[in-house]
Task: inverse folding
């Protein structure tokens, strides 16, 4: 199973389908408040790290739970929208 | 000058520092499974293998040396020696979650670069292995340049090795190196990831069952339903499980009261002990089982990791009043007691957010309200089944709880638009792995709470009850005058004075009497009512329970208004004191007391007049 080929980099974490694995392609650091950007980095968000959306809360636009590295992190959609993801090919899984 | 070397436990949140601290020092520090359990430094003593004592401090978890919340500031100040009152540690034990290596190593690298002697405790290696992750501590030690000891703090594994290494590190008088400058941001992150990757021997994909558990717990529809169900079961259990032990305690105190009355001659001493102390304190201690059951539930929620899932589910709702899901954790803790709840707000980064959370925390139904609610509901609300498994008394209790939450919601809504106005803060939180709560930790948590409760009963509550008894007992009415002793007493007359103020909201003189000493602590209202009716008991039998007496003297609208009063009224010295400490001044506690009393008066009044109009 080949999970290493990025197919496109046009997706933000906010739009990434659930359970679709990817890697962080880029993060719009300048769209984030300074403290927010720092916390995001401290939680392990960085270019090249494996990422996957695990859950989306209900109640309209609730937060997102995603796996980053080996950790699960909850964040709001506005922040998720600044994180661009390169999805990995899932042809082999499907 | 303290001669014992100072060693600090430091690391990311939820790495298991407090568990390690407890295991090393035999202390009983609170542990839990969510980031931000420890919000202040705690110290204890550890004896090294060579017999030397060491002062060990447990620091709040942090993600880096640039603090973003008050609890992280404590950690930064201690390890960098910037705190004016703090001694700089002689060595650091950097605690790392083995399953979260790449992330925790980032902070570890920063700490190592400070130049203090460091021992790394690679904690929770058992969970990492359960996760399919096998690590090589030797490789990690080589890359970091400091000793690395694998540990499982909760099972006391690796402690001897850790102590031996500490003895070595401190005993050798390890020199403090010069602080080094580190790469920052992304570069530091990448180095941490590289080191982590080279320490991994083998790795299997992360566990499936935790994902399955979260698929239910965080499900868009099932998740919130589950949360409501958990809270509902929790509050029903408080009523139904506690019945038997409560009856036992109740009959114990009744027996004691009767024994004292039989053993002592009629008069001052007999009345003071039986009517004052035993009736008053007993009326409060009866609620110990309920409080412990409530705490058990909250401890299990905290220890299992579900608390953060609840925060996740609540974030959207909290956002509508300008708060975040993170504030939900201190607020849920406030159901047990607002004091630790308010202290737990230190993990909230945004200052306005934190202040708002502090101001609404007293609206959560803390355990001190349970005695008041239970007594009045038990006496005045029929316990009929309204639907299978749901009784009216439990439903009213749940209603009061919801009232508190709704009040807090509305208060936050108004506060965030007026006095604590500010940009809406974000929500970004690490979700811990689920863990089976350790029986011992639960037992310690319950024991600590029981001791605090009994201490309160023995001090604040006993003292205010005794003072009230004295004021209620003197002066004595003339013999055969037919005047009730309470009416004639000093307290009775004070009560008459206060009654004028509270009559518009349906309160009687007895309530006015109970409210005053209950300023110290809410439970005192119960013991005060107990004392008033014990003294006023002119009937021949005289051994009626308080509930029987309440039924004879209170109307339902009065009882409902009284309950509503306690939803809002900030009657707790400890809460006011902790608010003063956490906000550094009297301004905010004064504001809090003011707005809550106003709300209590208005809401109790509305309740009373609605109930009267409804013909209850």
Result:
């Amino acid at each position: 199973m080949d999970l290493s080929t990025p197919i496109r980099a046009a997706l933000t974490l906010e739009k990434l389908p659930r359970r679709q694995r990817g890697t962080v392609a880029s993060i719009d650091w300048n769209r984030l408040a300074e403290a927010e950007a720092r916390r995001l980095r401290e939680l392990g968000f960085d270019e090249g790290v494996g990422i996957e959306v695990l859950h989306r809360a209900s109640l309209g636009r609730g937060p997102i739970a995603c796996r980053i590295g080996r950790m699960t992190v909850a964040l709001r959609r506005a922040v998720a929208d600044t994180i661009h993801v390169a999805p990995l090919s899932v042809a082999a899984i499907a | 000058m303290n001669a014992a070397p100072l060693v600090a436990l430091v690391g990311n949140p939820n790495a298991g520092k407090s568990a390690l601290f407890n295991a090393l020092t035999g202390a009983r520090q609170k542990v839990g499974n969510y980031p931000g359990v420890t919000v202040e430094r705690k110290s204890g003593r550890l004896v090294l293998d060579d017999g030397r004592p060491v002062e060990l401090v447990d620091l709040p978890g942090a993600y880096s040396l640039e603090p973003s919340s008050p609890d992280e500031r404590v950690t930064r100040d201690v390890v960098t020696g910037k705190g004016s009152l703090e001694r700089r540690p002689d060595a650091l034990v950097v605690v790392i979650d083995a399953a979260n290596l790449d992330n925790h190593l980032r902070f570890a690298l920063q700490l190592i670069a400070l130049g203090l002697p460091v021992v790394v405790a690679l904690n929770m290696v058992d969970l990492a292995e359960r996760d399919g992750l096998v690590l090589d501590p030797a490789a990690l030690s080589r890359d970091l340049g400091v000793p690395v000891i694998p540990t499982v703090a909760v099972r006391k594994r690796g402690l001897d090795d850790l102590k031996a290494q500490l003895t070595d590190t401190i005993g050798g008088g390890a020199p403090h190196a010069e602080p080094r400058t580190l790469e920052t941001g992304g570069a530091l992150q990448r180095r941490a990831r590289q080191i982590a990757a080279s320490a991994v021997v083998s790795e299997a994909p992360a566990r499936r069952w935790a994902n399955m558990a979260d698929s239910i717990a965080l499900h868009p529809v099932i998740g919130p339903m589950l949360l409501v169900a958990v809270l509902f079961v929790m509050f029903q259990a408080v009523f139904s499980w506690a019945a038997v032990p409560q009856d036992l305690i109740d009959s114990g105190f009744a027996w004691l009261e009767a024994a004292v009355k039989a053993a002592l001659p009629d008069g001052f001493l007999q009345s003071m002990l039986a009517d004052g102390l035993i009736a008053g304190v007993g009326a409060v201690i009866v609620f110990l089982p309920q409080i412990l059951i409530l705490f058990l539930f909250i401890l299990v929620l905290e220890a299992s990791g579900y608390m953060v899932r609840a925060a996740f589910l609540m974030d959207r709702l909290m956002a509508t009043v300008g708060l975040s899901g993170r504030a939900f954790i201190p607020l849920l803790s406030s159901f047990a007691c607002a004091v630790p709840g308010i202290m737990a707000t230190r993990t909230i980064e945004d200052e306005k957010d934190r202040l708002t959370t502090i101001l609404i925390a007293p609206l959560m139904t803390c355990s001190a309200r349970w005695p008041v609610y239970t007594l009045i509901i038990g006496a005045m609300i029929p316990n009929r089944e309204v639907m299978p498994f749901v009784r009216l008394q439990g439903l009213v209790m749940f209603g009061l709880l919801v009232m508190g939450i709704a009040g807090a919601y509305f208060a936050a809504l108004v506060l965030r638009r007026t006095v604590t106005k500010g940009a809406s803060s974000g929500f970004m939180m690490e979700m811990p792995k689920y863990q089976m709560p350790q029986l011992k930790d639960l037992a310690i948590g319950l024991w600590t709470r029981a001791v605090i409760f009994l201490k309160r009963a023995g001090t604040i509550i006993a003292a205010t009850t005794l003072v009230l008894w004295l004021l209620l007992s003197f002066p004595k009415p003339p013999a055969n005058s037919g005047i009730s002793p309470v009416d004639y007493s000093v307290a009775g007359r004070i009560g008459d004075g206060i009654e004028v103020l509270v009559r518009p909201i349906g309160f009687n003189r007895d309530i006015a009497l109970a409210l005053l000493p209950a300023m110290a602590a809410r439970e005192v209202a119960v013991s005060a009512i107990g004392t008033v009716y014990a003294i006023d008991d002119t009937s021949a039998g005289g051994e009626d329970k308080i509930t029987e007496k309440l039924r004879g003297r209170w109307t339902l609208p009065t009882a409902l208004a009284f309950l509503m009063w306690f939803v809002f009224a900030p009657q707790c010295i400890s809460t006011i004191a902790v608010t003063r400490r956490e906000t550094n001044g009297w301004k905010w506690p004064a504001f809090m007391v003011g707005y809550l009393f106003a709300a209590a008066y208005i809401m109790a009044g509305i309740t009373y007049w609605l109930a009267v109009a409804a013909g209850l």
Remarks:
- The two ends of chain A are 10 Å apart (CA to CA).
- The interface with chain B takes residues 33, 35-36, 38-44, 46-47, 49, 54-63, 65, 67, 69-76, 78-79 of chain A (CB under 8 Å).
